[in-house]
Amino acid sequence: MKGSKKVIDGLNKLLANELAAIDQYFIHSRMYDDWGMDKLYERLNHEMEEETQHSDWLIKRILFLEGVPCMTKRRDLLVGSDVRSAMANDLTLELEVVACVREAIALCEEEKDYQTREMLEKLLFDTEEDHVYWLEQQLGLMDKIGMQNYIQSQMGK
Fold first, then answer.
1. Of 43, 39, 60, 50, whose CA–CA distance to 97 is shortest?
2. I need a surface site. Which of 76, 118, 128, 130 has the fewest CB within 10 A?
């Protein structure tokens, strides 16, 4: 099914963000593992898998619309140097993804591509209700209980 070039371009822009999120969560999860923060490692590893699923949805939809998924473009990674900066950088990336998804949803409305819009709404829910909310919650916990207590709560079993 030949899709709108505008929609395909919007999906590729979003794909670039999702691919960057995979890489950013990958490095941050391994940093947490190296620092002995098993709970954060497990959570970020899970987030990386969800971002991979989102990328899969986008790639399949672009192919369905007879477009070519662009796997070579990615936004720059924001790698943190400690727990707080890593989470703050992940939140920055996720908020950019939210804005990009909303933009793509509006584009789908404009182009009357309701099936793509439906897929993007699921992606938006995952991003806002899960990823962004959890990151904001963790940063808030750091402020409430202090960094040392937070780090201790994320350590191994």
1. 50
2. 76
Nearest Cα residue to 75 out of 31, 33, 24 = 24
Report the C-alpha gap between 19 and 41 in whole angstroms: 19
Q: Which domains does the chain have, with CATH numbers?
A: 5-153 (1.20.1260.10)
> What would the pLDDT profile of 68-104 be if each residue is shown by its tens digit?
999 999 889 999 999 999 999 999 999 999 999 999 9
- Long-range contacts, 48-52 (Cβ 8 Å, 24+): 48/21, 48/22, 50/126, 50/130, 50/131, 51/18, 51/21, 51/22, 51/25, 52/22
**pLDDT tens readout for residues 13-24:** 999 999 999 999
d(CA 106, CA 92): 22
Identify the band that residue 122 occupies on the pLDDT scale cut at 50, 70 and 90: very high
Contact 79, 21 (CB under 8 A): no
Helices 83-111 and 114-125: crossing angle in degrees, nearest 10, is 160
CA distance 141 to 145: 6
In whole angstroms, what is the distance from residue 133 CA to residue 127 CA? 8
pTM above 0.85, yes or no: yes
